[in-house]
Design goal:
With 303 residues, this protein is mainly β. It is 0% helix and 50% strand. Strand 4 and strand 5 form a beta hairpin.
């Protein structure tokens, strides 16, 4: 699994040391709480996550924004329903703040009746006051590509984004995914720079690679990503590591995933990493449970 040479500031996921944070809507397969995105503001952790029911029962029916002082016990601030976004389903959000303290919530929205995905953004001075009425599309995708699950960070006077992109020409192949990279001056108008991470034929990540967190550490870029070997493993992705010197090229590291659930299909995905000064690194991820449901879990790794 992990040989310690990837340059991480903390160990890879250890499910046996993790704690549950958000339970799924029901204790059954197809019911999930996960796809987290977190930010730290004035000592408070703000968390956005997705709630999901099985296909045919609502899919990704809501995104929740919550806050916590300890990183484990969360108070719900607002719930964005998929119908308010005119979406068939919602997937992973991205929660960030601007330099002036405005909160932004980027939402992955499934276009009804299609395999297409787009990303819209909401803004608010208070994360309890996100209003879908004021949303705008910032990553429209196209007739040939669906775009979702953005990872966003600000560095060097720029906004940087990594998004999961899916081919739409053949509906049976739309589960495939690569990660494309874009930059922006304001986090709203984006310039694409091409694909930065793909799966490897014949490996555990052959069907696709989706970046979930990007860190700068020791002069290198380290990224966590979700991968799967086949379409049958959709929804049960495992976590891998990729690395690069900058943001525009990421290369998978190692022969095996570094994060796997001990249950079901091994799903451990959408890993988010947040540095909390004075405490260390807190990671969040969605993990498959013994009953087949997915729950949101956390680990804290002191510096």
């Amino acid at each position: 699994m992990f040989d310690g040479d990837f340059g991480l500031p903390f160990p890879p996921p250890r499910p046996e040391d993790s704690r549950p944070v958000i339970a799924p809507p029901r204790d059954e397969p197809g019911h999930w709480a996960g796809a987290p995105s977190a930010c730290l503001v004035d000592g408070v952790i703000y968390l956005a996550y997705r709630l999901r029911r099985p296909v045919g029962q609502g899919r990704g029916y809501a995104v929740v924004v919550a806050r916590s002082r300890d990183g484990e016990r969360f108070e719900t601030l607002t719930v964005i329903d998929k119908d308010l976004m005119d979406a068939e389903s919602l997937e992973r959000p991205a929660l960030v703040t601007t330099e002036d303290g405005t909160f932004r919530l980027y939402l992955s929205c499934a276009t009804t009746g299609t395999k297409h995905w787009r990303v819209e953004v909401l803004e608010a001075a208070d994360p309890a006051r996100f209003d879908p009425v004021g949303s705008r599309v910032v990553l429209p995708g196209s007739r040939l590509v669906g775009v979702k699950d953005p990872v966003i960070r600000q560095d060097g006077g720029k906004w940087h984004l990594w998004a999961s992109c899916h081919p739409l020409a053949d509906p049976d192949e739309a589960d495939q995914m690569v990660t494309d990279y874009a930059t922006s001056a304001d986090g709203l108008e984006w310039v694409w720079h091409g694909t930065v991470l793909t799966g490897r034929p014949g490996r555990w990540d052959a069907r696709g690679a989706r970046v979930t967190a990007v860190l700068r550490h020791g002069g290198r870029t380290v990224a966590f990503y979700d991968g799967r070997a086949s379409a049958a493993e959709n929804y049960e992705e495992r976590t891998g590591l990729a690395a690069g010197e900058g943001y525009s090229v990421l290369l998978p590291q190692g022969e095996e995933p570094v994060g796997v659930s001990p249950h079901g299909g091994g799903g451990l995905r959408y890993l988010e990493a947040l540095r909390v000064p004075g405490e260390g690194w807190r990671i969040y991820y969605e993990m498959t449970r013994a009953d087949g449901a997915h729950e949101l879990r956390t680990e804290l790794h002191p510096e």
